[in-house]
Specification:
The chain is an alpha+beta fold. It contains ten helices and nine strands.
Length: 332
């Protein structure tokens, strides 16, 4: 028998596993949150590879400190959950789903989703939303991502058990988080509107952050050939999020045009800039893709820095133009 919470995956663009999961729940329950998901509440960040202080790569984060302003209207609270018996944890998961709860489970991505970046390559860990299970087929339904995007996957029971029993919670005695969380939703969920002033405020912040960002020290693998593939994969993951964010900005721009916050000429001009930036980040990503499949175990780091520097400058100019247009709208 099938038991499942209906959740439509948010896959317009990729932010991160937490944000895409929460906006999937929010936009399923109240469609207006699908429009608000494209809000420019992101920031660029230099990210160090875990347990390594030498190699860093560029990525975009969508911090919950910004997104909670919106998502707190949907998610009432996130409660830690500890299984009574970890060897029988699937029974408790099934009870949660039967009761309409939303459990997110700590898993090892090495065993989790075929065709994902980590599958059978890297022991990366995160929390994945379990939306349902089918007792007749002995499978579970989860929201997660692979190389084709964020969507629903069918996970056999054996793989679910393997991914959890090898999770960070199960293997690391110093791990501080619980094995599972349950998401409790608001009883009443109000519609949400895209705030033009919030978009403008975020644009001003992004301009300042990009102006202060220096990337000359990034993607420096040096002579550490042993970790070459892992470093390249992390760098690829970071640029993939940046490229996807340009698609998110195009959705945002279209929303603003539809709401008459910007005129059609401004929309066409700025949209073309976003299209060009998206193509540019795809070219940057290609530098790493070529390196990943290169037998020489090296890549053109100078080219990657050059492309990225140009694209960051273009994004800063894009938001500066947007801010200037915003001032003209206010004056009118």
């Amino acid at each position: 028998m099938l038991y499942q919470n209906h959740v439509v995956p948010f896959n317009d663009f990729w932010m991160n596993c937490v944000s895409n999961t929460l906006y999937s729940i929010a936009s399923t329950l109240e469609p207006s949150y699908k429009s608000v998901a494209c809000l420019n509440d992101y920031e660029y960040r230099k990210c160090l590879v875990e347990k390594d202080s030498n190699y860093a790569y560029l990525m975009i984060e969508h911090p919950l400190k910004y997104q909670n302003r919106v998502l707190s209207n949907v998610i009432d609270k996130r409660e830690p959950y500890y299984f009574k018996d970890v060897n029988q944890f699937t029974e408790e998961l099934e009870d949660m789903i039967k009761n309409g709860q939303y459990p997110v489970l700590n898993v090892d991505l090495y065993y989790w989703i075929p065709n994902s970046l980590a599958w059978k390559q890297y022991h990366w860990y995160h929390y994945s939303l379990i939306t349902g299970y089918d007792s007749d087929k002995s499978v579970y339904y989860v929201l997660d991502d692979d190389i084709n995007g964020f969507r629903e996957f069918e996970i056999p029971k054996e793989r679910l058990e393997q991914a959890f029993l090898n999770s960070e919670y199960m293997l690391d005695p110093n791990y501080q988080e619980p094995p599972c969380y349950t998401l409790e939703l608001k009883k009443e969920i109000a519609q949400c509107e895209l705030s033009f002033l919030q978009v403008k405020g975020n644009a001003e912040r992004i301009v300042q952050e990009i102006s202060e960002l220096k990337i000359d020290d990034l993607w420096d693998i040096g002579t550490d050939v042993e970790n070459f593939d892992a470093y390249i994969t992390n760098g690829l993951m970071g640029i993939n999020i940046i490229e996807s964010r340009q698609h998110g900005n195009r959705f945002l721009l279209k929303q603003l045009a539809d709401l008459h916050h910007i005129d059609s000429d401004t929309f066409m001009q700025l949209d073309q800039q976003l299209t060009d930036m998206s193509i540019g980040w795809f070219q940057a990503k290609n530098v790493l893709i070529k390196a990943k499949f290169s037998s020489k175990r090296r890549f053109n780091r100078d080219q990657l820095i050059q492309i990225s520097t140009r694209l960051l400058s273009e994004e800063r100019q894009f938001w500066e133009q947007f801010i200037q247009k915003s001032k003209m709208i206010v004056m009118v």
